[in-house]
Amino acid sequence: MALPAKNLLSNETSPYLLQHKDNPVHWRPWSAAALQEARETDRPILLSVGYAACHWCHVMAHESFENPKVAEAMNRHFVNIKVDREERPEIDQIYMAALSATGEQGGWPLTMFLDSDGSPFWGGTYFPPEQRYGRAGFLQVLEAVNAAWKNKRTDLLKSATALKSHVESRLSPASGRSASPSALLDDLAPKIQRMIDMELGGLRGAPKFPNVPFMRILWLHALQSGDVSSKEAVLFSLKSMLSGGIYDHVGGGLARYATDDQWIVPHFEKMLYDNAQLLRMLCWAYGETQNELFRYRIEETVGWLLREMRDVNGAFISSLDADTEGVEGQTYLWTEGELNSVLGADANRFLEIFSLAQPEGWEGAPILHRRSTPESQGRETETALRSMLDRLLEARNSRAQPGRDDKILVDWNGLTITALAEAGRTLGRRDWIEAAQTAFRFVCESMNHGRLPHSIRAGNRVFPGLTSDYACMISAAAALYQATGDATLLAQADAWRTVLDEWHADADATGYFLTASDAGDVPMRIRGDVDEAIPSATSQCIEALLALSVLHNGALGAHLGHVVEKALGRAASQTYGQAGTVYAAALAEEPMKLVMVEPDAEQVFVPVANRHLDPRRFDIVLSGAKEAMELPGGVTVDPTRKAAYLCVGQTCLPPFDTANALEEALRRRH
Questions:
Q1: What SS3 state is found at 436?
Q2: Alpha-carbon 366 to chain mean position
Q3: Which of 10, 389, 390, 502 has a CA that sits 20 to 30 A from residue 44's CA?
Q4: Which of 435, 444, 522, 529 is nearest to 483 (CA)?
C-alpha cells in the first residue's frame, strides 16, 4: 500500500531529517516502504542527500524545499526521499559514485533521480530554484525529468541499468594482482608530495582540505624511508592550517575546509572526524618535534571537544553547524571594535600577532587569522595570548551559537576515543583518557545482542552497524588498552571482530562489505574501499585486525594477510582514492611491538614510549605478570626483570635496561 501523501520525517531521529520535517515537500526517509511506493505509483524517486552542518544544504532547503511552488512540483511528479549522509553513509556512497560516473563533480546537497528499484539515471548537487550561476533552475530540472520519465522512459531505464552496473563494479570490484604494500607506498608518496603547496601548506589550489589520508601516507613514508621532505611537507601543512582562519583560535578545533588557498576563509562547520584525526597527527608531530605550537593546539582542541562536543552520556556528537541564525560563521567573526571592547588595552598587543582578515570575495565580518609565522611565539607570549583568547571565548559564548548535530555516530566516536587516548598518553593527561573510557562505555552499553548500532540519538539507535563502526571501535579498544593496560578491552575488541566476521565478511572470508548481510533496504552491497575525509572502511578494518593481531591474537595474522592482499588488489588501479588502504597495508607489512616490563610502582619505560608515539608501534606494559611472554625469534620476556623489548616484524632487538637506551632506539626509528 502506498504511503500517505504527507511529510513523514517528524518521527526520525536524525537532526538533518528533522530540519526538513515542516517542509511542504512530502519527504520520506530511505526505506523499503518508500521504494515500494515508487513502484506502486509508477513515479521516479527524487533523492536528496545532505547533513546537518552543510551550508549549501540549508540554502537549497530555504530556496526550494520551503517553496510551495517547488514542493508542489516535487510532490506531483516524484516520490521524495531525504537521507542524512552521516546516518546512512552507504546510501550516500552509492549515489555519489553514480554522480561521479556521469562526469559531474560531487558534493552536498546531492540530488539524484532514481527508478523505482533505486537505480540512478541522472543527478547533480545544488540547484537554485530558478536558472542562475550558469546552473539550470530546479523547477526546470523537475519538469524536464518528469517529461523524460513519461516520454523517454526506455532510454532512462537503460541508462539506470548501465549506471548501476558501473557503480557496482567500482564500489564492489573484483580483486586483481598488486605490488607489495611498501612498493605502493614508495610509489604513491612522491606523487602526493609533488601536489603539496610548500608556500602555503596542504594540497595546491582551493578549496583546501586537511586531507588526512594523504598526510598519513607522507608521514608513514617518512618513517619507513627516512625521507625528510615528506615529513617536512606534513609538518609545514599542519603549522599553516593551525595558524589560518580554518583553525578556531578562540575556542579550539578545526573547520572542515578553507574556501581559499591560504587557509583564511573557513567553511565554518566543525566536524568530529576532522578533529579526531587532527589530534592524532598533532600527537605524532609533537612527539617528533617537541614544537610547543603542536602542544597548544592539542590542548585547545581537546578542550573544545570536551566542552562543546560531548553529550550528557560522555559520548561525542557529530558536528557544529556552519551557520548561526542563517548567517555563515556568524558566531566566530570579530570586528576591531568588538576586540577593543573585550580586550581593552591588550587589543593592540593581540593584533600584533592576529589579524582581522577580510579577503576578496568574503562578505561577512572579519576572520581571525594568525598573521605571524606558523611557529610558537614562546611560552610566555603564548600564555598571555591564551589569556586574551579565553576572554574572547567568554564573550563569544554569550552570542547565539551554531546548531549542533547531536547524533552519536559509533565510528566517529571510535576515532575520537583513539585520539583522546593517544593525546592523554602524549601529554600525561589521565583525565583525557578517562573521558575516552566514558565514551567507550556508552557505546558498549548501546549494543544489542553484541551488535553495534551506527547512530544513537535521544535513546534511539540505528541498527545494524557498519563495518567502519566495528573497525573504529576495535581500534579504540586497542588504544585504550595501550593507555590503561585493561585486558578486558581486548576481549571486547575480539568479540566485535567475531561479529564483523559473521555479518560483514564476503564469501571467501578475505574481506568485508560495508553493510551487514541482514541490512534489508540497501540497493547493493558495497565494500567501503574508497577514502573520503576519513580513510576507508576497508583500511580501518586492516588497522583494527592488525592491532588485535599484535596485541591479543597472533593467529589473526594469516587472515589479515589475506584481507590485505585482496584489498590491495582492488586498490591497485586507484591508489589516490584508496590511500587509506595503502597506508594500512604498509603498517601491516612490518609492525612494531614494544613490550615494557615495569614490575615496580615507578614506571621507567612507559613515559618514554608515550613521548614517542608511532603509528607503526603497539605497546604492551607488563606489571605484576606471573608468566613469561614469548616474542618472535624465540625471545622470552622475563616478567620480573625491568626491561623493554622492541620487535620489528619478526625480529626483536636485545632488551633495553634503561629509559635512555629505549629513547635512543625509538628516535632512530624516526
A1: helix
A2: 29
A3: 10
A4: 435
- For 607, the grid coordinates are 613515559
Identify whether the C-beta of residue 15 lies closer than 8 Å to the C-beta of residue 7.
Answer: no
Please state the φ and ψ torsions of residue 300, each to the nearest 5 degrees: -65, -40
> pLDDT tens digits, residue range 349-366?
999 999 999 888 888 899
Among candidate residues 13, 17, 86, 30, the one with its CA nearest the CA of residue 409: 86
- C-alpha to C-alpha distance for 264 and 188, rounded to whole angstroms: 29
What is the Cα–Cα distance from 265 to 368, expressed in whole angstroms?
A: 9
Q: Which residue has the cell 545544488?
A: 126
575, 564 in Cβ contact below 8 A?
no
Within 8 A by CB and 6+ apart from 111, the residues are: 46, 47, 48, 49, 123, 124, 125, 126, 127
Q: How far is CA 543 from CA 52, 162, 261, 628, 629, in A?
A: 29, 35, 32, 27, 24
- Which 8-state DSSP code applies to residue 143? H
Collapsed DSSP state (helix, strand, coil) of residue 246? coil
CA distance 45 to 37: 10
Among the listed residues 51, 108, 53, 19, the one whose alpha carbon sits nearest the alpha carbon of residue 404: 53
Q: 380 vs 192, 292, 383, CA distance in Å?
A: 37, 12, 5
The C-alpha atoms of residue 256 and residue 241 are separated, in whole angstroms, by 11
Phi, psi of 278 (to 5 degrees): -60, -45
Q: Cβ atoms within 10 A of the Cβ of 507, count?
A: 6
Residue type for position 108: W
Looking up cell 549494543, which residue turns up?
A: 447
Q: What is the pLDDT of residue 175?
A: 80
pLDDT tens sequence across 308-317: 999 999 999 9
In Å, the largest CA–CA distance within the chain is 82
CA 43/CA 190 separation, integer angstroms: 50
At 311 the pLDDT is 96
How many other β-carbons are positioned within 10 Å of the β-carbon of residue 634?
Answer: 7
Best CA proximity match to 648, nearest among 657, 639, 661, 635: 635
The Cα–Cα gap between 80 and 145 comes to: 14
Q: Which of 399, 388, 412, 410 is nearest to 365 (CA)?
A: 399
Query: For the whole prediction, is pTM greater than 0.85?
Result: yes
pLDDT confidence tier of residue 81, bands split at 50, 70 and 90: very high
Nearest CA-CA partner of 473 in 458, 495, 505: 495
Supply the DSSP string of 76-100, one letter for each residue: HH-EEEEEETTT-HHHHHHHHHHHH
Residues 287/231, Cβ–Cβ less than 8 Å: no
DSSP 201: S
* Helix (H/G/I), strand (E/B), else coil: 630: strand
Contact at 8 Å (CB) between 10 and 29? no
Residue whose C-alpha cell reads 583513539 in the numeric block: 418
* No. of helices (H) and no. of strands (E), the chain: 24, 23
Q: How many CA atoms lie within 13 A of 301 on its CB side?
A: 31
